[in-house]
Amino acid sequence: MSYSDTKQHNQHKKTNLKTALSMAAGALLGTGAIVHEAKAEILTDWQFDSAFLYYSEAERVTAAEIIVSANKTFANDEVLNVKLTIDSLTGASANGAVVQAQAQTFTRPSGEGQYVSQAGNTPLDDTFKDTRVQLNAQWTQPLAENYTASIGGHLSKEFDYLSLGINGNLALDFYKKNSTISLGFSHFQDRYTPIGGIPKPYASMLIGDSNSPSWHEDFAATRIASGDNKITSDVLVGFTQVINRRMITQFNYSYSMVRGYLTDPFKIVSVLNQAGTAQDYIYEHRPDERKKQSVFAQTKYHFDQGLLNSVLDFSYRYMWDDWQINSHTLDSTLHMPLASRFGKASYLQPHIRYYQQSAAGFYRPYTFVEQVSNGSSEENFISADYRIGAMTAVTLGLKYGFSLNNGNDFSVRLEYYRQMPSNAGFDQPSELANLTVYPVVQAVIFQLSYSFL
């Protein structure tokens, strides 16, 4: 799980449960919509949802995010949703190099200046900083009896990244509206212009006297372009079924094709001698295409007796791709109503999530001098990015929410995240035997949400 996995914003509970789950097939692609079932004449005002999220990894990345979402329902059950997201990221990010028993010196991605990683520490680039502004708009309307369509647009801008996208979804209700089939799509065009430019795959990181007359010329020789593009196309098919008055299920299949620049320009790979001492650092190289598939199943069950009238939400997702990564995700919440607080009903919602992932076929925590001399061709991919390595992760959290006297809703969420990378079968040189090659990543997630009319 990455930082983006924590960006969850709960919609107001006026949503019809079955319709919401059926349209969630589109939501996974960014095409989700809120379809209210109350009478049109009383749903002509704007409804606002807002959230503040704080995410902090121990000694690494810290993120702060503000989300404001607005819904407008019109007389013919047409719904407009507009959502603005602003987030800021600071801190340090692992650059891909492996830990060493001695201090290591690296050049910053811009080529201006250097930084030092102390002996025994995972090398972290402390220049990580970015601000993102994202705007999504979605229009949903009935097309005919039992047919609902949704179309939307996406704009996201960071310092070095621009993303533009469109999406759409079509849902068909049948069997007395107890069953729904939906088909969603999305298409994104992204432009990446990283500071310092696009590194040449397998090129050695330039390290030395940055004040030398030839420094800028030598640094430029390790670059191949100022920027590059990425295209993402997704298709999702979903089926939702009401089992009875207390249970509803959903099943999705998704296919994603990503083409273009998929390498991380800020990641490097350590080149070791046989003893395990770093001799060089080379820029990683990933394929320019990735095909991903996934299946998803979700069940919601309402305990109307016992368990405090609770609602159990359980889901499972299996993903596989042609990078040889496969993953399993189990996610569960239990919505438990409490006695009245602040004049209105309140609830507790514990959350647990388990994630397990295999490593990409070209993942290497480090490489060796002999392998680099024989493996720098266009077809030999390599990356030491722990995010595509073998890992397990667990999230534990608790959410508390209540309604105010004016009908508005407030909630607070606190979660703990622990990511545990593991060795995917690589032999470890003697000099790394007493060092932490696969460090645990821990994070705290805190969120405040407020919904109002």
TrEMBL record:
Task: Note the InterPro entries from the entry.
Answer: DUF3570
Pfam families on file: DUF3570
Q: What is this protein called?
A: DUF3570 domain-containing protein
